[in-house]
Amino acid sequence: MGDVIGMALGGTALVFFCCSAYVLTTRKDMSFLGGMLMAGIVVVLIGMVANIFLQLSALHLAISAVFILISSGAILYETSNIIHGGETNYIRATVSLYVSLYNIFVSLLSILGFASRD
């Protein structure tokens, strides 16, 4: 179990640093991701509600994988907003980045925990 937690932590750190480094080095404006992220969140929420009733482990894994992608996009979006001055409330930006990190960690933990079952 400790290996799974360590791998999830390492994967989360890798995703965060890669996304942040990409935005910091390219200085691209990622504001175009806003609409896609919102649509993705709605789709994932519908999938979560459906999985409450269906109880499909494959759907759970798919939701976790898509949630990792959405959270990675949120890191790109929020970091870009911070760099380009679109976000002046730094407490909100910090909380948003923290929530994205938490979501990536929990989703990776779910996927790796499922993969390590006997």
TrEMBL record:
UniProt entry keywords in alphabetical sequence: Cell membrane, Membrane, Transmembrane, Transmembrane helix
Membrane topology: Multi-pass membrane protein
Pfam families: Bax1-I
UniProt cross-references to InterPro entries, sorted A to Z: Bax_inhibitor_1-related (IPR006214)
Transmembrane regions: 6-25, 32-53, 59-77, 89-115
Main location: membrane
GO cellular component: plasma membrane
Cell location: Cell membrane
Family membership: Belongs to the BI1 family.
Protein name according to UniProt: TEGT family carrier/transport protein
Organism, scientific name: Salmonella enterica subsp. arizonae
